[in-house]
Design a protein that fits this description.
Tetrahydropterin Synthase, Chain A, 123 residues
């Protein structure tokens, strides 16, 4: 099995409603995103997928989040824009864009250099 990973990033503001602490106030992050796809087959060039193509798909999904107030961005008007909910949102948007025989393995959201969350579906 081959696992391909691309990284991207976006900047956005948010606050965690109901949180007791500093994160209840509006603040910003330069979120880093890692997306991993998997596949067992290679094409005639010896690639499972072109990194450039995967990066374009990721950037297309996260471009709408860039420089947003995430608390006002659907679906986060009803759901706290935590790193967990961001990872699942990005995963759900990317999953239908990854064509078989490849599949989306995981989406990781780095909120800061030391804090990350990874979302993957149960198998």
């Amino acid at each position: 099995m081959y696992y391909l990973t691309v990284k991207s990033s976006f900047a956005a503001a948010h606050r965690i409603v109901g949180y007791e602490g500093a994160c209840s106030r509006y603040h910003g992050h330069n979120f880093s995103i890692e997306v991993e796809v998997e596949g067992k087959d290679l094409d005639e060039l010896g690639m499972a997928m072109d990194f450039k193509e995967l990066k374009e798909l990721v950037d297309g999904v996260i471009s709408g989040l860039d420089h947003q107030d995430l608390n006002r961005f659907p679906p986060f008007q009803e759901l706290n824009p935590t790193s967990e909910s961001l990872a699942k949102y990005i995963y759900d948007k990317l999953k239908p864009l990854i064509e078989p025989p490849l599949s989306l393995s995981s989406v990781t959201v780095w909120e800061t250099k030391g804090y990350r969350v990874t979302y993957r579906e149960s198998r």
